[in-house]
Amino acid sequence: RPSGAASAPSRGEQPAGPPLTWSVDSQAWKLGCGHDYVIAKPPDQVPPPPAPQDAAPWAATQNAVHGG
Fold first, then answer.
1. Domain membership of residue 61 as a residue range
2. Predicted local distance difference test score (pLDDT) of residue 65
């Protein structure tokens, strides 16, 4: 076995933690402008879209859901 190679835990030994960590930001705007939301309000009652870092609170205050 090469030095530093990972191995399975011995019988009765518990792994130190999860094998990986995954996080998701559903408000991340990969393509900048043009992110679609579905909002049950007339367009004149919807404020302009925010800067990307403010997308989550903006969507929450509008009861918006992702449109695609």
1. 37-66
2. 85
- The answer to the question of residue 44 being in a domain is yes
Largest Cα–Cα distance of the chain, in whole Å?
66
Look at residue 60 in the predicted model and tell me its pLDDT. 92
Residue 66, H or E segment: strand 65-66
C-alpha span between 59 and 23 (Å, rounded): 19
Is 0.70 surpassed by the pTM of this model? no
- Do 65 and 41 meet the contact criterion of CB atoms below 8 Å apart? no
Task: With respect to residue 48, please indicate whether it lies within any of the assigned structural domains.
Answer: yes
Instruction: Please check whether residue 52 lies inside any domain of the structure.
Output: yes
Structure tokens at 58: 């903006």
Domain count of the fold of the chain = 1
Q: How confident is the model over 27-52, as a mean pLDDT?
A: 80
